[in-house]
């Protein structure tokens, strides 16, 4: 409900872009898991703005573990992660907060909170809130990895540039996941990275922005994760993915492509081999009836272009009720998809761990 | 959690395809709402299999209101809807239940429930479970309509056939919603309905099946519905939509099309006119930062082809662990999208009412 | 929330006293558990009104398992229990429903539901709703018993008559639990049963009613059940116990008696013996810091006198807003504590199974 | 679930006694409420250890509002309160943590968390965690007070010393609530305060400790708060009260005294006067069928003696599995009930606000 999610483990998110800090409380984790804090840092770095294609706002993302962590291991009680906000220029916002930025939550926040919201930099609706999500996700992911699960994402499409897609060959896929997880700007084809970056820089000069599509793969999951009806794997993961700012589309396996094939193609035939059952194809992305079948989960997530652009836009001043021409100032990314990718990995990790922590899930955690 | 969903109102789903009955408990409804039971029946009829393009299994979908309904109105206590199962031929299933049907939950149910699941006709995973959802959704929808909200869906794509799309003109859209809600097979273009039905019949002869894409529109919503972070409108609705069997993709507004436009196009500029704020375009589908802005919500939902096909498929017998050739018998739809459309309307209605029942949607205490 | 409770397993309650049926949906149960339906019947019988000391309303409590039960075992999907209402004399109520019965929910239901509640026989607030709770509790209890847990309750006090109390000797306690579970009117001292029944008959003649205190014992629990902070064993069990109509007090171990002893007495010293840690006394009722320590849980629950009495009472007609003299008609128990005892056992069983189904609970289920 | 509670508003608790900080996230609050931070401080002071009768550990309880608070008002997004831990002498604990303190959660924490818990000073099970609860409760209470609700508690019994009880006269009760809220050591009879303090000092010299009973009154509530079945006012409040360390008994109105009266006494007759319905007596403590009837809520809560005593106790070293004689060192209160009183007020305030934030407490949709 609201800023808390999860059934078996839960995540409670708090903070605003220009408040004292942002953070998250992660509850229900198994006790005694040794957390690699360097790994948290490296995951946080993947989210960090870098180079010419990113905002010039340099965030200090030092993650402090405030509770639930003792002598290097989880205690089993609430694990709280806090990231102090620094380098925030509130002066950028105070004068103009009535002027609604198109594509942002400014207007809806005014309506929902009657003007009492912290409007600075998007406040609670800022992408800044994804920082604690990544920190929490990093811990969930480490637990999953210790149980043989690997997660990886890459930018499959950025406007006109298309990357390769994940392989259907499990061994190749494993290598691809390993590869993208080493990169800051995750593409399968290195040439594609160059083109995408060039495109972002070009659009930045125009004062415009871009979005794209992220492809995510998860391998090594046990069968039996997910619940019938309302807690299907797709339901749990989409709920989390649509909580990530700017996400407007989520699909599994063939996704919207299922409209273009017949059932005889859509179905994944079964095969019994080497003592185990698997499917010959994986159009359903490792999920049947909302429950994992042991095959890779393949997700496509569409991230819309950054709403903050420098081009002049038509808008309204909520306070004066005047139509205005809006010229956004400040520091903004012309594209966030390369940063969003680790946020996507993080919520997927949380969702899958939550399902795995259900006692009536098939697979047991180590 | 599992078969219960909702924060302010909740829906608890139960039953199996070939059990005694299927049903739902709807809790938290406002007291004193006069339910139109004929409307429930007409919504149930939209879900019913009809004509040559549908299964020959004729379901008796008489909805009994067991509780929470007194003297024609809701009592405010749990409203329970039960639909008896009739005309179930269990003999069709008992002999062959180890033989896993591709695209179905047979395998994952075996793995999750260790073989104790009711395997007849898909049991708890059957599309039959959408009947009580439609009955519950019909009540939620009536409450929304009494508050000025209209919901409508049509089949935007069926394999190679494409229907028109919903208009950006609110008045035209209102008429379109009215029109599709009158139809059993919902398309905007009547000619398109003829072509789609012909296509379904053709594929049925092949022993194959089809899926498609449903476009859903919601108008008349107040601003301020939805919560930041995890209970965004997109999160709540996608969670419910992916609980509908066969749904594999969900998007809002431009959806995956956001990858093909720049921010200057993606953003919806604001305008103040006749005392109210609205947007000039509606690419974000009436949702900013997860919260409604008063514009129409536009959803695209992809429904995969019916997994039950008559063509021979490769499979495995879970019990004997043998590779087998599977030839599905029984009565099955070559396409379910025309029936799925009302299920989609129903879960959308539930989700929006749930969000509306949040006190801080209005933010007042007394 | 509202009529749904539980984290790992959940129970959703529905129905009214004079509606079509009452029932409950039990979700999250382990799959493959063989339910003894005769045991459900015998538990239901313990709740049933019997003999001269009980109401003359003879309820048909045939429990129908509508879903989640296949070939004699739980399927792991929602298990629904429905009990049809029969022998309801609505005519007793219709004429007088505006006349508020003291001690009942008539007034508060009017206020909460604005007069739309089903007022017949207390509607959703009727003790009739405890029937499905007992049926659900019987299943939870059978699962606990299969895991070595025993639950038993007796009437420790009825007005001026006091029964013996449960023994601190675990072997004696085990026998006592066995004994009370054989009885319809549960006391440890048979002589005490005779006195209590005589007292109830005497008070019935006066047209008055009685309440009392139930003592409940649970043995065989593993250590580690319960959560810190808000899901302590005491929190979970009291939440459920106070959901039972007429319960006004709940305590654990010494309970309110803790006010009369010093810490040196209140504390239970530890002892390591025969390879296990236990406490020398059990004043804290097997619960430290909200988590089970393996010792017996001892609960005291106070059930107030039946609010329905035949003596004339001062009241108000809610509809006419007149002060009236109320003379309750119909069939009512002069005492319900002997029937409440199995309801108490049932909610305790549900609560403990819910805690046990938490993956991070120490003990694993068989 | 676990460390998160609440349906309409929620509270997520985190931290350990000797960790970096303790805190709470309060979500779902109405936006625009002006918080009096001095009031938070004065409520925190009531919880603070003071004078000779309390521990010599002086806690720095400076409450930092990290989020959800902007320009002096609530924003409507998660409000996070953090209290840094200072003056913690970890050295007191490290050497002896295997030695289980009777009456504490040491043993159960070892069993539940397999030894990975933060054992210093009780860790997550420390009374220190009540500090953020009081801070959160102070905010909830301010909101309730702004809506005409008053809450007050006093020590009704401390071992052999008994205070007066709250009056049945609403005007007198109002004054009594005002009086006890002015006091650090809350009794109605000043003479009683002197006797209780003297008794605590006497027992402290013995190296022993005391508990007692707190009586709490709530006035000014609207009718209709609370839900049928599982979210009765008693269920919600007892769930929270039993989450407070050392609470072992909770009752409402006559409580366990209901066993000693007949129905004709237990029932509260109704009266219509000056345009409103009220009851002539209030034995049911303003709650009928789990829902408020507008009369005062009267709660009795039993707090056991402080488990930390200086007398030698028999115990076990969990790590060496040896029986040991335990002599607790460090700084501990001989009695905590005078400090627990504000914690009780706080959870009661949270619970009632949560119920009030339910839309169907008023039942309207728009």
From TrEMBL, chains A, B, C, D:
Reaction equations catalysed: 5-O-(1-carboxyvinyl)-3-phosphoshikimate = chorismate + phosphate
Binding sites annotated in the UniProt record for NADP(+): 47, 52
Pathway, per record: Metabolic intermediate biosynthesis; chorismate biosynthesis; chorismate from D-erythrose 4-phosphate and phosphoenolpyruvate: step 7/7
Keyword Nucleus listed: no
Pfam families named in the record: Chorismate_synt
Lipid biosynthesis listed as a keyword: no
InterPro entries: Chorismate_synth, Chorismate_synth_AroC_sf, Chorismate_synthase_CS
Similarity-based family: Belongs to the chorismate synthase family.
Protein name per Swiss-Prot or TrEMBL: Chorismate synthase
Organism: Absicoccus porci
Organism placement in taxonomy: Bacteria, Bacillati, Bacillota, Erysipelotrichia, Erysipelotrichales
Gene giving rise to this polypeptide: aroC
């Amino acid at each position: 409900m609201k800023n808390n999610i999860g059934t078996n483990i839960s995540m409670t998110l708090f903070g605003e872009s220009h408040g004292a800090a942002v953070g998250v409380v992660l509850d229900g984790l198994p006790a005694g898991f040794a957390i690699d804090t360097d790994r948290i840092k490296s995951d946080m770095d993947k989210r960090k703005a870098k180079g010419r294609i990113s905002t010039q706002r340099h965030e200090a993302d030092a993650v402090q573990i405030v509770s639930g962590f003792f002598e290097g291991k989880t205690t089993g009680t609430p694990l709280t992660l806090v990231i102090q906000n620094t380098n925030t220029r509130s002066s950028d916002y105070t004068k103009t907060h009535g002027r609604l930025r198109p594509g942002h939550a400014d207007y809806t926040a005014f309506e929902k909170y009657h003007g009492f919201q912290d409007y600075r930099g998007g406040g609670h609706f800022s992408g800044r809130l994804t920082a604690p999500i990544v920190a929490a996700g990093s811990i969930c992911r480490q637990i999953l990895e210790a149980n043989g699960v690997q997660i990886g994402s890459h930018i499959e499409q950025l406007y006109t540039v298309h990357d390769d897609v994940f392989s259907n060959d499990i061994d190749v896929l494993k290598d691809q996941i390993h590869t993208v997880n080493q990169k800051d700007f995750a593409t399968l084809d290195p040439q594609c990275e160059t083109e995408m970056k060039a495109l972002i820089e070009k659009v930045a000069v125009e004062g415009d922005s871009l979005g794209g599509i992220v492809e995510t793969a998860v391998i090594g999951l046990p069968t039996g994760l997910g619940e019938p009806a309302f807690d299907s794997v797709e339901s749990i993961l989409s709920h989390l993915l649509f909580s990530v700012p700017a996400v407007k589309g989520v699909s599994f396996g063939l996704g919207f492509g299922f409209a273009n094939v017949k059932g005889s193609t859509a179905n994944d035939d079964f095969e019994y081999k080497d003592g185990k059952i698997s499917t010959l194809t994986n159009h359903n992305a490792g999920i049947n009836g909302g429950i994992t079948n042991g095959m890779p989960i393949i997700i496509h997530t569409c991230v819309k272009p950054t709403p903050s652009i420098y081009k002049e836009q038509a808008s309204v001043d909520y306070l004066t009720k005047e139509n205005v021409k809006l010229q956004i100032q400040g520091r903004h990314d012309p594209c966030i998809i390369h940063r969003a990718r680790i946020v996507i990995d993080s919520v997927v990790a949380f969702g899958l761990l939550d399902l795995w922590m259900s006692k009536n899930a098939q697979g047991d955690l180590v």
